[in-house]
């Protein structure tokens, strides 16, 4: 099962999203819970934002981290110095672990990029022991990411292709209120709760915002990469205008909301 998230370069991902997932990870861990000695699975580890936060938070027995992207797997392995952490390439919809292996399975900013997200939830439930926890968080692209909506609404005003991007971006899996909670219940998890987590994305200037997108990283970067040279210039200029909003270029701060859900394996 492929992921719909496009990644070319680990450093580009860090500038695009990794630095923000690092801010979100401690809040997500507080919501998901954690206890010393547990075996934890990080599904879709990316460059290790959640993986390494888990290692810092508790005296865990083992942390298994998987990702579909070899770029992410290679980078997380390169960064890792903790013998408790084991990283491997794997599919969230076909986890390479026996039933009931883990105390918790966590997925931070992953499920909305998995086309069959419910299957990934079912796999997370399968590999967690009875009484253990499955938890996930996804961005609210429709109503909770104004910095990214700024771009998708801008390109939607420029072309039909931009409108198609907006339709895809705003309605990815698990993003609508209650959608992830319903999926958790449908997959047999109990005592399911859903909440919202909020961080701020603070940019130094427009280049800080635009550079990874212009380099083709992530879903917005993937769209930019399809444009011809003239359309790329036009798009960058229009997004810059939206970012600056009539003021000199410089710092901007956007509040960003993620939906978070947790349930217990019966």
Automatic annotation (TrEMBL):
Record keyword Methyltransferase present = yes
Organism superkingdom: Bacteria
Q: Domain Methyltransferase type, which positions?
A: 41-135
Source organism: Rhizobium sullae
Please give the Gene3D superfamilies that the UniProt record associates with this protein: Vaccinia Virus protein VP39 (3.40.50.150)
Protein name listed in UniProt: Class I SAM-dependent methyltransferase
Tell me the keywords, alphabetical order: Methyltransferase, Transferase
Q: Name one GO molecular function term.
A: methyltransferase activity
Q: Which InterPro entries match?
A: Methyltransf_11, SAM-dependent_MTases_sf
- Keyword field contains ATP-binding: no
Classification via CDD domains: AdoMet_MTases (cd02440)
Note the coiled coil stretches, chain numbering. none
One matching Pfam family, short form? Methyltransf_11
Q: Name one GO biological process term.
A: methylation
């Amino acid at each position: 099962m492929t992921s719909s998230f496009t990644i070319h370069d680990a450093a580009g991902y860090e500038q695009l999203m990794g630095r923000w997932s690092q801010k979100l990870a401690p809040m997500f861990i507080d919501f998901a819970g954690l206890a010393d000695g547990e075996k934890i699975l990080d599904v879709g580890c990316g460059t290790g934002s959640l993986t390494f936060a888990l290692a810092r938070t508790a005296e865990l027995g083992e942390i298994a981290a998987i990702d579909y992207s070899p770029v992410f797997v290679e980078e997380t392995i390169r960064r890792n110095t903790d013998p408790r952490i084991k990283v491997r390439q794997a599919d969230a919809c076909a986890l390479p672990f026996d039933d009931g292996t883990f105390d918790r399975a966590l997925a931070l900013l992953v499920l909305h990029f998995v086309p069959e997200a419910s299957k990934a939830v079912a796999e997370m439930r399968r590999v967690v022991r009875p009484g253990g926890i499955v938890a996930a968080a996804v961005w609210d692209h429709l109503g909770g990411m104004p910095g990214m909506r700024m771009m998708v609404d801008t390109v939607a005003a420029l072309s039909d292709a931009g409108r198609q991007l907006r339709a895809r971006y705003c309605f990815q899996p698990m993003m609508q209120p209650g959608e992830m909670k319903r999926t958790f219940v449908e997959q047999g998890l109990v005592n399911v709760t859903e909440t919202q987590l909020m961080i701020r994305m603070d940019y130094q200037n427009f280049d800080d915002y635009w550079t990874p997108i212009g380099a083709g990283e992530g879903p917005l970067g993937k769209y930019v990469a399809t444009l011809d040279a003239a359309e790329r210039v036009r798009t960058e200029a229009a997004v810059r205008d939206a970012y600056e909003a009539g003021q000199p270029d410089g710092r901007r701060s956007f509040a960003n909301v993620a939906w978070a859900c947790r349930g217990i394996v019966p």
